[in-house]
Amino acid sequence: MKKGKFIVLEGPDRCGKSTQAKMLVNHLIAQGKDVILTREPGGTDTAEKIRQIVLEPGLDIRPMTELLLYESSRAQHTQEKIIPALEQGKIVICERYTMSTCAYQGYGRGIDLKIIDTLNKIATLGTTPDLTLVFLMSDKYFIERGEYLFDDRLEQEDRAFREKMRKGYLEMLTRTPNAYLIDADKNIQMIQEEVLSLITKHRII
Ligand SMILES: Nc1ncnc2c1ncn2[C@@H]1O[C@H](COP(=O)(O)OP(=O)(O)O)[C@@H](O)[C@H]1O
Ligand SMILES: [Mg+2]
Question: Between 20 and 30 A from 59 (CA), which of 27, 37, 175, 199?
Answer without folding.
Answer: 37
